[in-house]
Protein 1
Amino acid sequence: MTTQPSTQLETFPNPQTERDYTIRIHTPEFTCLCPKTGQPDFATITIEYIPAKTCIELKALKLYLWSFRERGAFHEAITNEMLNHIVSAIEPSFMRIRAEFNVRGGIYTTVIVEHTAKNWQAPALVMLP
């Protein structure tokens, strides 16, 4: 069993390609380093996506997120890098990553990035009473 950080993202076939559905992954334990001070930054990462042909394997995603722990990077750079890597690995119909960083110097930072596949259209919103 792997117990080291890894940048390798594993995938598996989408078990329901005939239907759009949302996968939501929420992790409140993300850490990285401030590029200016070297002090730890903590964040809650929420990944929401509509898979096309493949899905992200969760253990591989956990090890991928762990790979940021000893890296210094700005919040905006990390969030966009995550989106680029995961989209490259699974080519989803849609993906949104929300990174909510804990307070640092009295300032909270939330970075939200999105990807929409070229020929994909979101289904109509259903409003229930």
Protein 2
Amino acid sequence: MTRGVPATRLPAALKVNSLSLFFGLIFLLSLVAQAFVGTAYFNREQLSGGLRPVGVGDYVLSSSYWVDVTENWQSEFLQFLLFILATVWFVQKGSPESKAIEKAGRESDKDQKVGRYAEEDSPAWARAGGWRLSVYSHSLALVMGAIFVGSWLAQSVTGAVAYSEEQLRNLQDPVTWTEYLALPEFWSRTVQNWQSEFLAVLAMVVLSIYLRERGSPESKPVGTAHEATGVEG
């Protein structure tokens, strides 16, 4: 029994948080897997260059590991940031990933249940006015944007360090952070991730018009017409 949580309530607590727990678990497992396979790949490169291999712990603390991690993080959060902002104004007929056609835009206070239209269980800042309501009205995009910028900066810094280490191994001059930002090496790694994320979003928006996954909120109900927009299962 978990202290403070009755045994009869624990399964219910897990169930109502199962989606975040599932993705949190596979996220951690993928980080661990990346550490081990990344170490194997890194050591193969080390041995081919006549250098000593490293342990998993040393690799996880290296710039080579973190440039790959943050490179993926920044592209994922950019994808969600753009999707959040684009779906305010842009719509797609027939897609459950789109709001209803007639609701394009910021919508009214009544529709958004803010200010005097707030309900009893509305968040406190949704009932407030002024800067608090303004900030909370855009809080999701602000946080996603901050994580994207932070991840992008982390990728660029760790990438510059990893690139300079490789330059030194090849008896060439290292580069500064600003010099690295101007290199095709950095932008090639960045843009190739962006295009894959944008393609994934496009596929989800368009394919969900015609295809279904029964019981998923990311899909329309199986029997719903293709033209139905903003309807979730």
Protein 3
Amino acid sequence: MTVATDEIYEKYLQKAITEINTLGDEVAQAGGGTRIPVVGSGHPLADVMLLKYAPKASELQEGVAFFGRSGNAVLKSLQRLHVDPMAIYGTNAIKFADGSEEESRPFLLRELHIVQPKLIVVMGEQALAFLNSVEFPLARAVEPTEGALQTFTPTIEALYTPDIDASLDEQAEKTRFWNAFKPLGEFWESLPPY
């Protein structure tokens, strides 16, 4: 008996949704009811994962990564590159305003295992150092080379960009971010259609 590819994908998707929701609950529990968690958002089996270091005030208020200015800027950039924003997953390395790297590493490790992206866009030096410290299986250190696709694991590429939050106030920094982010468009075009 043959099972349709769509049915298999739907089973993986349901599993990923359950696992992401469970992870969100665990992050909330780690806050102990006194700290507001900021969880990742987007497609739980995204081809592209966006990673920045720490949540900003608007993200803390809503409890969702990439909410506010950085999310709007990324959305506009994705639209310019003709990348489907519904097929992206975005998260912060640090899950609380006062979160530590030590408590946050296992959460990102699980997110990477659940989402299984084909590309991770690492935004800024702190996010890069954090990703390189996670000890993901078969991972190579990602270099701070802006706009160059690099091998992170045998199945995941990495793209390093400046920190989106630090790039929003000056035109030169916006341009620098855009130039480093643009290779995402070519990567996206190279993916097989669903």
Protein 4
Amino acid sequence: MTFEPAFRRVLLKLSGEALMGDLDYGTDPGRVRAVATQIAAVHAHGIEIAIVVGAGNIYRGLKGAAAGMDRATADYMGMMATVLNALTMQDALEKQDVKTRVQSAITISEVAEPYIRRRAIRHLEKGRVVIFAAGTGNPFFTTDTAAALRAVEIHAEAILMAKNGVEGVLTGDPRKDADATLIREISHMDALRRGLRVMDYTALTLCAENEMPLYVFNMNDERNIERIVSGEQVGTVVVTRDE
């Protein structure tokens, strides 16, 4: 792989479903290895990469237990699940000889550093991949919001939103609308007005306010991260425009 990177520092948002493969819930080791291989290949070219992981793959299996539970308690369970995914990704990346650090927004010092913004930036400058776990550390906020917040805090140049089997942002839900088509470019505010679920509304607003571009792409294509960081148009790009 030879290219002039379009970005020097990016934040990759990995949904839990991106680690699930074809399973109903849980983690597919083969899928995790494939994702780690993609990240390692791009990181090898000097691109600084931070990662925020979701927990949909684990939380699907907890839905029954969480039914009727207090929302804050359920959200804390989800945060703990993201720590499991972060440790899984750390192990897979280190098997690819990529130095990593996990930083958690909730205190879990035996397995992760506390989230400290300046330390995270220093790790990136030293060539380490930083994995942010436990969302924002607060209930009622999603890992999408955590991704937007961390990207702004560490001065990332873009957020890469990895989807499981979805090419990008579509005009409608393909499960309900057979005519749904891929949108190549859209503004943050237009996506909000149209109710397109690029990411949750809090996160999308934060990205709009800070002019943070989003690249929404299919993680199943093993060259998509490479294509995006080389400046190629892949999936959907969400940008800030003068409205």
